[in-house]
Amino acid sequence: MFYLTYGEYQSAVPVRYLAAAVGRKGERPEMQDAHTIVENLLIYFRVPPSNEVQRLSFFAVFDGHGGARAAEFAAKRLHLHLVSRFPRGGVKQIDKDIRRVLYDAYKKTDEDFLREAIQQ
């Protein structure tokens, strides 16, 4: 919940937003980037991580760096690895642990991609 202040008055208002993605192919013959937009990650949780969290959004852009395969893989998997590792508890606990959780989610996504690439 964000608070807006108008002079002496302060009121809590729910933040609403719209998200969109636009891509533009550069010098390469095909678009190699990928993106993920999840307005509310809570739909992926069996049990919400906290009663304090009402919405948990995820927005990501993945640069293809010479190929779309890894970018597309990460766009499909990273947020799911994040959900599976997400800390439980209040906002303070989540804030404390989120850096490690993000690192672990990226690492797991990378390991899965490399494993799949070796098998193919």
TrEMBL record:
InterPro entries: PP2C, PP2C_BS, PPM-type-like_dom_sf, PPM-type_phosphatase-like_dom
Domain PPM-type phosphatase: from-to ranges: 16-120
GO MF, one annotated term: protein serine/threonine phosphatase activity
Entry-linked Pfam families: PP2C (PF00481)
SUPFAM superfamilies, A to Z: PP2C-like
UniProt key word Hydrolase: yes
UniProt keyword list: Hydrolase, Metal-binding, Protein phosphatase
Domain of life: Eukaryota
Protein name: PPM-type phosphatase domain-containing protein
Record-linked PANTHER family: INTEGRIN-LINKED KINASE-ASSOCIATED SERINE_THREONINE PHOSPHATASE 2C (PTHR13832:SF699), PROTEIN PHOSPHATASE 2C (PTHR13832)
Transmembrane intervals: none
Native source organism of the sequence: Echinostoma caproni
PROSITE patterns: PPM_1, PPM_2
Keyword Oxidoreductase: no
